Structure formats: C-alpha cells, structure tokens
C-alpha cells in the first residue's frame, strides 16, 4: 500500500523473496498517485496505469518480458469499457491497471520515447503536490507533442473498445 510519504509492505510480501513487480508498482506510486494525485475517482487510471507501466519497465530491466510483450498481452486481455470513465464496479479493475497501462504504452508509441519521457517529467515536476484530472493530463500531452491528440485519446482512452494494435 502506498501513502503520501512511503510505501508499506507486509511480511507476507517478502516470505519467498521480494515480489519485484509489487515493489516496482508501489514505489512508482511515489510519483504517480502521491506526488500527483487523481482529482476525481474517475481519474484513478492516472496513478494505477502509470504505476503498472513503471512495474512493466522494471520487469523488463530485470530481464523478464519486454514492455512491448507485456503491453501486447494486456491489450489482448483488455475488457470492454472506457479507461477514462470507469463504472463504479470497474474503478479498480483491469482497465485502470493493465488496461490503463495499455493506453500509456500506446501514447509512448504515438509520441516516441523522447516526447513521452518529457511528458512524464513535466507532469510530475509541474503538478507535484496537486490533484489533477484526465483533462489536465491530455492537455499537457498535447502541449508536449505540439499537436492535437484528440483522435488518439478518443480511440485509446475514452472509447469502450480500444484499437487492436499499437501505433507504429
């Protein structure tokens, strides 16, 4: 569990050695979820999807599956439903975590690494200590990209069914 100041883990999390994916996910919340918090419950994807994406990046670093492979698996297993507008039953479901990370990966593919990581840096640096909305994030993404991303976000973030393949 993450809190504003630190992540907490139970002894059970370490019985058979540390769960690297759990550690990475919860520590990623120090930036996505704690440094910048979601303003509304419907914005919860902003912390869960980025924490999941950070988890994927760490697992790739450890030599597990690549981020591309994990994203493709998650895309194939994604449930119908909007990541940006989850129902009460879906609020902490697949589409806020893995499904949201699919949106993050698609955005990385759409922008390229340089702009994508610039966006993440500006998000945390510019909004540290505040609560933000999905609209704040999409506006910053468009500013960093230097172009409209409305079609991208309509298809990947707001639609009930996402595209079946990532941007090239």
UniProtKB/TrEMBL annotation:
What is an example of a GO molecular function annotated in this UniProt entry?
Answer: zinc ion binding
Which InterPro entries does the entry mention? Peptidase_M1 (IPR001930), Peptidase_M1_aminopeptidases (IPR050344), Peptidase_M1_dom (IPR014782), Peptidase_M4/M1_CTD_sf (IPR027268)
UniProt entry tagged with the keyword Signal: no
Q: Which organism is it from?
A: freshwater metagenome
The processes (GO biological process) annotated in the record are:
proteolysis
Q: Which family does it belong to?
A: Belongs to the peptidase M1 family.
**UniProt xrefs under PANTHER family:** PROTEASE M1 ZINC METALLOPROTEASE
Protein name (Swiss-Prot/TrEMBL):
Unannotated protein
According to the entry, every stretch annotated as the Peptidase M1 membrane alanine aminopeptidase domain falls at 21-156
Q: Protein biosynthesis: is it a keyword of this entry?
A: no
Which cofactors must be present for this protein to function?
Zn(2+)
Q: Which Pfam families match?
A: Peptidase_M1
Q: What keyword terms does UniProt attach to this protein?
A: Hydrolase, Metal-binding, Metalloprotease, Protease, Zinc
